[in-house]
Design a protein that fits this description.
single chain; Rossmann fold; alpha+beta; 9 strands; 5 helices
Length: 244
């Protein structure tokens, strides 16, 4: 555009503009002369923080992937163990219950670590029931079968069975006692019982008697022939004084 004298501002207007600019500059005072240096420092700091955030996000992603892989492997391993124990349980329950049927069921196969385990059993001549609906003796058989199923998969050094044969009839008590004796070849069993059949199958028998003083006394190396029909121990005079 061609500049002429007619479109130039007059001197007074220019002075007013300069004065306004100078006043605006004074309002900005005091000016931090290290502002540029501080800006560069903060820019570098922001860059470092951005890099740290990026690194943490990558770590988070890697950890999520690792957790997913571990969870999947854990699930696969759990199902392997579960299937083995379940197969053992079916066989052992059938042996203890005279050809009854039973199985272990996961409450939610999709969420195996958040749900529980259910035992279903069908004693011979009966319908399939949950463990909670079985009689005392039937619960004992199912529970013992479950213990032996785990033992067969991964034996422990010893087991403590506290009157597990209390609710069993004579036939089932004998079956359980013989299975305990057979399994005792691989692990030690400590079995608290009042059943004579169980005492006869034991390798060692220890009794607890109550004297007239009210003090319990341990008796070791008991002859099973001295044990009464309900587990009482006979003294030399034939008196029942305690329970094995």
């Amino acid at each position: 555009m061609e500049i002429t004298d007619t479109n130039l501002p007059n001197v007074e207007s220019l002075k007013d503009s300069v004065k306004a600019v100078e006043e605006s500059m004074r309002e900005l005072e005091p000016v931090n002369m290290r502002a540029l240096e501080e800006y560069e420092h903060q820019t570098e700091r922001k860059k470092k923080l951005d890099d740290d955030v990026k690194h943490l996000k990558n770590q988070k992603k890697n950890l999520i992937t690792l957790v997913s892989e571990i969870t999947e492997k854990k699930k696969e391993r759990f199902l392997e163990v579960f299937d083995s124990v379940n197969n053992n349980f079916k066989i052992i329950y059938s042996q203890l219950s005279e050809n009854g049927e039973a199985e272990l069921k996961l409450e939610d196969p999709e969420k195996i670590f958040e749900s529980g385990l259910t035992i279903k059993a069908r004693p011979r001549g009966k319908k399939v029931l949950l463990l909670s609906a079985l009689s005392g003796g039937e619960k004992s058989i199912a529970s013992i079968a479950f213990i032996f199923a785990i033992q067969q998969y991964d034996p422990s050094p010893f087991y403590v069975l506290d009157e597990v044969d209390m609710f069993l009839d004579g036939v089932n008590a004998e079956t359980v006692s013989r299975m305990v004796k057979r399994n005792a070849q691989d692990s030690q069993f400590i079995m608290v019982t009042l059943r004579k059949i169980a005492l006869k199958e034991a390798n060692h028998v220890y009794g607890v008697t109550m004297r007239d003083t009210g003090v319990s006394e341990m008796i070791g190396n008991i002859d099973p022939s001295t044990v009464g029909p309900t587990g009482e121990i006979k003294t030399e005079g034939g008196k029942m004084i305690g329970a094995a």
